[in-house]
């Protein structure tokens, strides 16, 4: 789905910096990042190891605070929020998908997907209905009662995606989501992300794989803690030195 240029950005970053340590051990992980991502965009964030892309993902996901700068998520200035407010923002506005699936091994797929709604105080019956619907969206309606050890890696990642979308977030943030999967399963998972984006969800994916980034609409390229390209076409990735 094409973004609406008249809409306010889902992600708005202005002069974002992130500094670790002090004195001789100072590391400038982000050096004045400006970035806008509009509703219904599907972007990938790329860059070499140490380029700042993982730090950027942590800031966008409200998992880490910037040292300076302005960050608005869906119109909310989150840069100065306290820990409790950040936790609420993460639960209500962001869905996370990681390379490792982070599923609870002792409970079913349905129970894993219900978990974010527990923190959101959603009534139990609504939890079950919404979790079942999310699992159906990712093609696992026949695996709801299976535990993670009864599922393949691709199926476990589908459960993780269902868990990420069950609270209807404004942003789906994926960090190397296909890194532990084979080529065929990777394509299946990318197809799910594309389908979610087609339905209107904003998706941001951190990846080091050009083949994965080529499934997105645009590429944001990091180098030395700065955005070098903010609107690279995925088809131009083969011209970039990795």
From TrEMBL:
<dbReference type="GO" id="GO:0016887">
    <property type="term" value="F:ATP hydrolysis activity"/>
</dbReference>
<protein>
    <submittedName>
        <fullName>Putative ABC transporter ATP-binding protein YknY</fullName>
        <ecNumber>3.6.3.-</ecNumber>
    </submittedName>
</protein>
<keyword id="KW-0547">Nucleotide-binding</keyword>
<dbReference type="InterPro" id="IPR003439">
    <property type="entry name" value="ABC_transporter-like_ATP-bd"/>
</dbReference>
<dbReference type="InterPro" id="IPR017911">
    <property type="entry name" value="MacB-like_ATP-bd"/>
</dbReference>
<dbReference type="GO" id="GO:0098796">
    <property type="term" value="C:membrane protein complex"/>
</dbReference>
<dbReference type="GO" id="GO:0005886">
    <property type="term" value="C:plasma membrane"/>
</dbReference>
<keyword id="KW-0813">Transport</keyword>
<dbReference type="InterPro" id="IPR015854">
    <property type="entry name" value="ABC_transpr_LolD-like"/>
</dbReference>
<dbReference type="Pfam" id="PF00005">
    <property type="entry name" value="ABC_tran"/>
</dbReference>
<dbReference type="GO" id="GO:0022857">
    <property type="term" value="F:transmembrane transporter activity"/>
</dbReference>
<dbReference type="InterPro" id="IPR003593">
    <property type="entry name" value="AAA+_ATPase"/>
</dbReference>
<feature type="domain" description="ABC transporter">
    <location>
        <begin position="11"/>
        <end position="242"/>
    </location>
</feature>
<keyword id="KW-0378">Hydrolase</keyword>
<dbReference type="InterPro" id="IPR027417">
    <property type="entry name" value="P-loop_NTPase"/>
</dbReference>
<dbReference type="InterPro" id="IPR017871">
    <property type="entry name" value="ABC_transporter-like_CS"/>
</dbReference>
<keyword id="KW-0067">ATP-binding</keyword>
<dbReference type="GO" id="GO:0005524">
    <property type="term" value="F:ATP binding"/>
</dbReference>
């Amino acid at each position: 789905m094409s973004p609406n240029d008249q809409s306010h950005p889902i992600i708005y970053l202005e002069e974002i910096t992130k500094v670790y340590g002090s004195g001789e051990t100072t590391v400038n992980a982000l050096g004045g990042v400006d970035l806008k991502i509009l509703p219904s965009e599907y972007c990938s964030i790329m860059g070499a190891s140490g380029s700042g892309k993982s730090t950027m993902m942590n800031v966008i996901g409200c998992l880490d605070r910037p040292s300076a700068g302005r960050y608005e998520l869906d119109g909310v200035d989150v840069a100065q929020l306290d820990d409790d407010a950040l936790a609420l923002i993460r639960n209500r506005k962001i869905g996370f998908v990681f390379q490792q699936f982070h599923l609870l091994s002792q409970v079913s797929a349905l129970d894993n997907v219900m978990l974010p709604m527990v923190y959101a105080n959603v009534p139990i019956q609504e939890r079950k209905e919404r979790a079942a619907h999310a699992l159906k969206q990712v093609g696992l309606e026949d695996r709801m009662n299976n535990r993670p050890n009864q599922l393949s890696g691709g199926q476990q990642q589908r459960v993780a995606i269902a868990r990420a979308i069950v609270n209807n977030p404004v942003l789906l943030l994926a960090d190397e989501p296909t890194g532990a999967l084979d080529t065929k399963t990777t394509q299946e998972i990318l197809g799910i992300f594309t389908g979610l984006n087609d339905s209107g969800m904003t998706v941001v994916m951190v990846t080091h794989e050009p083949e994965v980034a080529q499934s997105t609409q645009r590429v944001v390229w990091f180098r030395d803690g700065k955005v070098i390209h903010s609107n690279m076409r995925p088809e131009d990735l083969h011209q970039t030195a990795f």
